[in-house]
Amino acid sequence: MTFAELYNQDCLDKLKEIESESVDLIFADPPYNLQLKNKLFRPDASKVSAVNDYWDKFDSFKTYDDFTNSWLKECKRILKKNGSIWVIGSYHNIFRVGKLIQDNSYWILNDVIWNKRNPMPNFKGTRLTNAHETLIWAAKSEKSKYTFNYHSMKTFNEDKQLRSDWDIPICNGSERITSKNKKIHSTQKPEALLYRVLLCASNKNDIVLDPFMGTGTTGAVAKKLGRNFIGIEKDKKYFKAAEQRIKRIKEIDENFNIPMTNKKKEKRIPFGYLVETGIVEPGLNLFDLKKRYKAKVMSDGSIYCNKIQGSIHKVGAEIQGMPSCNGWSYWHFNIEGKLEPIDYLRKKIRSSL
Predict the structure, then answer these.
(1) Do 283 and 296 touch, CB atoms closer than 8 A?
(2) Looking at the domain covering 4-261, what would its CATH class be?
(3) Domain boundaries, the chain
(4) What is the pLDDT of residues 187-198, one digit of tens each?
């Protein structure tokens, strides 16, 4: 059972209380320091609900940099040796944040462009429409063996390597947390974005931390994916919304929450190893699933069927007249009256190594 620990505190105070090297992944959506000075209106004179909240106001760039440096230092302390961090920002702050990430000796892995399918237009027509935000993904150090679920990420790009430009719409519709028909948080992120980040860089039961929790998008997705979550938010209104939201989330059934594995990283175990270690005895009968063919296991790890002797793959291919065959899934053995693929034995060995 996963946990969600939520704290209605200033992030700098709470981060100092968290144990060193205890967190697997951090997602941070810090203040952007937009430096807005005037109200923004649409061509029809209606007011734009822009980011002009108290938490986004800083006296100077130095004040903002000092604040950023402080929370980045604490985050690095609490990250495990093989942990990583994702930080999102706009052109107003991401370059300053990126410099401080490197100053704190994190190891930058990627910058990701979140391309917004439905961005807010530039109402004054004085600049290009700001249609993206940037995420920086960094490991705790250059030597970190960080989590990267490469094969799972390929499913987001038709089984090709996932690119660093992500086309995801902004948070809208029923997903937007509102009160009295007004959005509670001005920069609520879409769950689809966090879903991809957490699938990419964490595993089930990992501890994920968000020091700027807002209305709880990271926590909602973490709970859904079976990750443990620590969320920090100093604004009471945001905190209550996040608390209620996360409480309602149901975790995905564990039977459907198994990431794709990298077969190349699995320890190679030849069939002969099963024979020489006594797990499979010479003379054992092997069958195809429909029992059309019966093969005998030989003392050297080869098998014999229809006057053909060779590896489990070679014999399986030749008796079928096929160019190749995965012998691990083709050949079966009888266990308590039921046929099981011989890969069943290989998996048992891998789990014990």
Answers:
(1) yes
(2) alpha beta
(3) 4-261, 266-352
(4) 889 999 999 999
